[in-house]
Amino acid sequence: MRVYRWDLDKTYLDTDFESMRGLFRSAVESARKKRAIPGATVLLRELARERPGWRPRIVLLSGSPTQMRTVLEQKLRMDGIRWDEFVLKDTLGSLRLGRFRAVKDQFGYKLPQLLQGRIGMGAAVREILFGDDAEADALIYSVYADVVAGRVSPIELSRLMEAAGAYPDAIVAALAAQKQIARADAVERIFIRLDRGVERWSLDTLAPRVVPVRTWFEAALVLAASGELEADALCRVHDAGTQGAAEVAEALVSLVRRSLVGPSALDALASALGAHALVPVVRQALADSPAVPVVAERPRIDYLELVRAWKSRPKVVSTVQ
Q: Which of 88, 193, 214, 265 is deepest in the core (most CB within 10 A)?
C-alpha cells in the first residue's frame, strides 16, 4: 500500500497566515473563495486515483483549527479530492486550557499525529509526504521518517520535542506511538514547496529524502520519472499550472542537475508533454553549467541542533502577495 500525507495551508491551499488580515479572511471565507495552489488539486487527485488492486491512502494533516472542518471539507469535495483521514488542530481546546504555546506548536501537534497514524501499518507500506516551508514541515517530516526507521531513539525524540517547545503530554503521546510502530525505512520522499523565499540549499542537510520544489509541476516531474505518476497524469498537472516552455525547460534542468530526474528520463518526460524540442535546450543548458554533486543520505542527522537552529531562526515574510 502507498500512503500520501499532505499538509493543507500553503501546501494545498493558498493561505495567508502571516498577517491578522489574512488569518481573519481564512477563518471566515467560504469554500468557494478558497484557492488551491496551482497544480495541487490535479496532483493530489491523480495520486489518489484508484485502479484495480490499487487504492492509495490519502491523509490530510493540517494545523487549521477543527472549527474549519466543514468549510475545508466542502472545498476539498468541490475540488474532487478523496481522503481517508483528515486531522485538524484543536486550537480552541488548547486556548481553553491556557496552553497558548500549543497554538503555534508544530512539533507537539504534527509529530505525535504522524506517529499515531503509522500504528498498525506493516513495514512494506511506503509513504510520500508533501509540505511547505512556512513552518517546520521538512524537519518534522524528516524526524518522523527516521523515528519510523528506528534511527531516532526514544531519548532523542523526547529531547528534541522538548527543545522544540512541545508540551509534556505531546511528548508522551509521541513516545507511546513510537513503541507501537513497525520499524521500516518507509518514507521515500518528502516534497517541500518553497513559498517564503527560502533557498533550496538551506534544506541540503535533509537531502536527498527532502526534495524542495518551487511548483507542484516539479514534484510531478520527479514522480513521473520514478514511475509514481503516469504520463497522462503528468500532462494534467502541467495543464493545470501556468508554466510555459521556458519554465518546463528550467524545471527539467534543475531536476536533472540535482539528480532527481535521470538524464535518460528526459526523452520520456518530453515525449509525455509533447515537448521534444526542449530536449536539446535542456541538454545544452546542462552542458554549460556544472553538475550539482549528489548529496548522499547522511548516516546520522543532528536533529537537536537543527531544532535549536529552527527555534532561533529569523522570521521570513512570504513572497506571495
A: 193
